[in-house]
Amino acid sequence: MNLLRSILSSTIFILLLVGCIENDPVYEYFPGDKIAFSYAVDGEYAIDYLVGSKIQFKNNSVAEGECIWDFGDGSEKVRESEPIHKYEVAGTYDVVLEIVGEGKLKKKILISDIFPTVSIEPIEGGVCEVDKTTIELSVYLPNPEALEVEYTWMFPQGTMDQDGNEVLEYKGENPGLLKFKNIGSQKIVLKTKLGGRSLEEGVLNVPVAYNKPAKTLYYAVKGGNLMALKLITDLPEGMNNNPFDLGIKSGQHPMNLVFNDSCLYIFDPGKQFTYISDEDGVLGDGSISAVAYDGSKVETVLTNTNAAFDDPFYGFIEGDNLYFSDRNKGITRVNKTSRNMALDRNDSRFGYFVQNERLLYYNAGYQYGAMNACMTKLSDGTWWWSKTYNGLGIFRFKESDILPSTISIGEAGKPYPVLANGFFIKSFVVDEVRKMVYYAIRDKGVYKATLSDFTDPTKITASNPGTLIQALISDSEGASGEYVDICQMALDPDDGSVYFGYRKDPASTVVSGLKRYNPTTNEIESVIDNVEIYGVAINHTKAKLF
């Protein structure tokens, strides 16, 4: 028994000794490691491979022999085992390690340029309010070679320093506390020289809110971004109301914008919105997107990669229902909360809410292929649906008027007479409070009529299109029946204002821009000039910012 205890004690002692020995790890090299190397930034900026950074290259090869390094930037080859190299120009380079007599290995390395990053220190309350909130800027600039830095700040008109003086330019790293006398996106530009070399400009857009709640109008710029503008009618003297840049592309042809439940919905038929032969049904490129009210989030509601004529052109939202019209067939209804849907007419979710052939107007007011334009639904449940080809005018119906199946020829007893019969009306709005209708007639201009006159076919006729507010000739983007024209109007029911985007015809003397019909003066005013706009929409919830 004592012998057994002695053996066990000796065994445990030996195991403890073995456990205390620090053995070097044994590396297993594979054939691919015959020639190998690694690299890392040496110094403060260990994560970034920047112009001017010291990069330590290390030979990890199993093969032995003289090392020859080619860094791929035209510099002389280096005969060292672990050289340090700096790149003077940003780009992607091929680094080659040659072990004389053994072979070569090539790897790519990406060298980034140095640029300044501009940011704002946290603001109390999170909102920068016009002529009130002060901000402080900060800049981060990697400087691996500790070179001399020159900063020049460029500020927009109305930027004030802490002493109340306007400052448009400041040389130095810290311009101090600043505030703004104008509303909207305030673009700050930082020009930087590092060791005498001009770097990419740092740009910061500061959203400056109004000092009291106001509605927000959104508009889609042709070839540009979605923009937002505070609707302010009592702007203090000396203060400018500039738009906010949401930093989100408008799309190809954003014909309609609809604001609903804190989201801006964009209806875009895509690049190809005019007639095209699409026998295989594969040329669709339209979409519906949902953008958060402040531009912080963009979601895809629906995309179409099937038939081009199924692309979404115009939209309307009521409750949870989102309606969109295609080119010339009908209107589809889906749930507005749905996301990432792929339009497929074989899917029951995308069955038509109404088709041309399911209203008694078919071949008795409009014909096959009648082109769709704007639509809306009045408080009494009546839909107004504009057509611009193969039957021009505004066609009305209630959901109970939609037939259960398609017909070939319209029957007697059409739901209602055609309104503005024979007129190309791409957009209109109905002010039910003031009993007025506003509409744009192609090649003529913007008109108005009382609701009672407009709904009386004997009052609005070819010889009497209504009361002309202003003659406006829009651009001719598109073809016959497809002209984009003034593609959307937005009504502010509180004051009766009507907003729309105007893209001028080259021969027109009226400049393009965001327009407003002022019901007090009975005139159309320019809100923003020299910008081409498609869809417009209003968020009627008042806020200082969005």
Automatic annotation (TrEMBL):
Residues 69-99 form the PKD domain. Transmembrane segments: none annotated. PROSITE patterns: PKD, PROKAR_LIPOPROTEIN. It comes from the Bacteria. SUPFAM superfamilies: PKD domain, YWTD domain. This is PKD domain-containing protein. It comes from Bacteroides nordii CL02T12C05.
